[in-house]
Amino acid sequence: MTSRRPGLMATVDLRRAHDDDLPVLWALFQAAVHRLTSAHYTAAQQVAWAPAGAPPAAWLARVRANAPWVARRSETIVGFADLQADGRVDMFFVAPEAAGTGVGRALMQRLIAQANDRGLVAMHADVSLTAEPFFRHFGFRVIARHTVIRRGVSLRNARMALSLGTS
Fold first, then answer.
1. Which of 12, 70, 81, 156 suits a disulfide with 106, CB 3.0-4.6 Å?
2. pTM for the complete prediction?
3. Nearest C-alpha neighbor of 24 from the set 78, 100, 73, 96
């Protein structure tokens, strides 16, 4: 795999997350929200979405239950994503320094292959405004727009869906 950023190799190793990864995944989630979404979300919205401090117990439980794929480059975690049994992508985050280098592509290709292996006919996700173009690139389309409330703050997002081929 080659990178869109000169000088960066996009060789990515994918594996399932382990409990030892949880602090790194929390830090990656926070960095992605705070450093990649400022074109679409205010600082107050970013804080509501990804607050500072230790990961909440509910977030840790959600990640454990989701059993995400972890993307690593040279043993460093640079992204994570999951696919639920019903075809929902619950979490999909790439480290800011790895954005645009093929990490997201490797994760999405893994999720689509997993969905096809499971015989799913579609995938769907509630996607940030920032992530819409990335998901669109893989054939997802917007089927609804939503406003969600996080810690009393409104954030806009989109429900996107991908029909999987049956050929």
1. 12
2. 0.91
3. 78
